[in-house]
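Hi R.,

Here's the input for the flavin-adenine dinucleotide complex you asked about:
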Amino acid sequence: MSEPTRIATGDPRYEDFVVRGDNARFAPRPDAFVLVRSTEEVVRAVDDAVRDGKRIAVRSGGHCYEDFVADPAVRVVIDMAAMDRVRFDEARQAFAVEPGVRLLDLYRALYLGWGVTVPGGSSELVAIGGHLLGGGYGPLSRRFGACSDHLYAVEVVVVGADGRARAVVATADPADPNHDLWWAHTGAGGGNFGVVTRYWLRSPGATGGPGDLLPRPPASVLASSTIFPREGLTREALRALVGSHGRWHERNSAPDSRYAGLFSGLVLFAVAPQDDPGIGAILFNHLDDGDDAEELLGRAVAEMTEGVDAPRYDLPFERRPWLSTMEKLARAQDGENGRHKIKSAYLRRGYTDAQIDAIHEHLWGDDHAFSTATISIQSYGCAANAIAPDATAIAQRDSVLRALYLTSWHDPATDEANLDWTRRLYRDVYAATGGVPVPDERNDGCYINFPDVDMADPAWNASGVPWQYLYFKENHPRLQQIKKRWDPLTVFSHALSVQ
Ligand SMILES: Cc1cc2nc3c(=O)[nH]c(=O)nc-3n(C[C@H](O)[C@H](O)[C@H](O)COP(=O)(O)OP(=O)(O)OC[C@H]3O[C@@H](n4cnc5c(N)ncnc54)[C@H](O)[C@@H]3O)c2cc1C
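And here is the predicted structure with flavin-adenine dinucleotide in place:
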């Protein structure tokens, strides 16, 4: 049996493993990183760590927004970077994908090889390992749902009550005795049940050759960009812009919407990008190209900006092949390595005027921290909502938008100021519901791939609603039962893991 590569403190490679993560706030410093190349090596690495009584964390792409991997209590980090193969598995009639593959590499392999893809996020460097475990959304999610909606089977190294590691395969087949473990891997987040060593991807009910077994993206995409200068976005103008964008999504996000092929992002800037400090907001839209695409896109942009009395610059529509569009979008999103704090929310309806006013007060006030800070309000709904809330671990199945609140900075001395600013912004947006998006007629909790430990802190979550409900809703008790069965010794845990 081959041996995994151990990189312990003092090894010249150690510091390179420390900085491989995306969020400089959380640099892991375990006793050793263990670079694995096969399922057998993962079994060996987990066995060794459990025997030595060392807490384990798993890292695929290193893009976790919280300290789930870098927690000082973690003494062994199992690094999946070298397990990054993508192939078609004839026996299982599904794409076998290893967790270390980065998203753009995965899209290239699936699309250039077979003309298919998964509807994942627009990031170059996030790995499918952590991404799919939390759901994984991107520009194609209104057409095809989340990445995890296309999970057919998963291989996981788990630890039994006897403390021994073993690899098990769990499938979407309800007759599979391990079916519950598959279900737990369809959106409950990483680091909960074991180490994923392989995914098999195939859309539910799909038959035919490899080119029929996963979604086919559009050959090309028509994109629009509208820029709103910062000074023109008064309180009233922002109400109109955010309000119209929200109402458009309320009207056009049913599973059978003719706008299922449209993905929209309205990005509001607190501190504008350095290359253009005059920007207050950018509205971008991507639409599957087709005969009536120009007309449909024109109409959508007009409706999303209806009633906005502010200067604007509409860039000419741009038509690009699909993969090239993903490459462009992903590179724009993978900002510089820095220090980050993220918060998220699902929106069943657009923001209220009171919420938009809170956003304006913080983003346009002079009270902000010294950083880049954005609220990105992105399309959700359509196919993502055509699945029952208990069919997979993703409980949020009737929202029309998802919002992410992201603050980034470089100087560790400003950590507290930036965290405090981000926390106050979010608390004030959700002032009516205890500072968090408590599931009700407007909100539907938070997205576990944008984890936020403040949800477990009564100082910032004054709603009385436990953080588990915000992320997992009614699916949480089932996740707990599965946890008890598959991780009885609680070998895998972090600040927001299923307990
Ligand atoms: C720049 C950036 C852009 C993003 N864009 C999007 C987007 O467009 N859409 C979207 O939905 N999300 C997006 N995300 C969120 C992203 O999906 C999550 O951060 C995801 O968990 C990262 O996965 P990773 O493997 O890169 O990170 P890691 O830090 O390696 O892992 C994240 C979590 O999953 C666990 N984990 C990782 N691999 C395994 C494994 N093999 N087995 C068990 N547990 C594992 C880790 O222990 C950790 O808890 C983005 C994040 C960043 C930083």
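One thing worth noting: The longest helix spans residues 235-251.

Cheers,
M.
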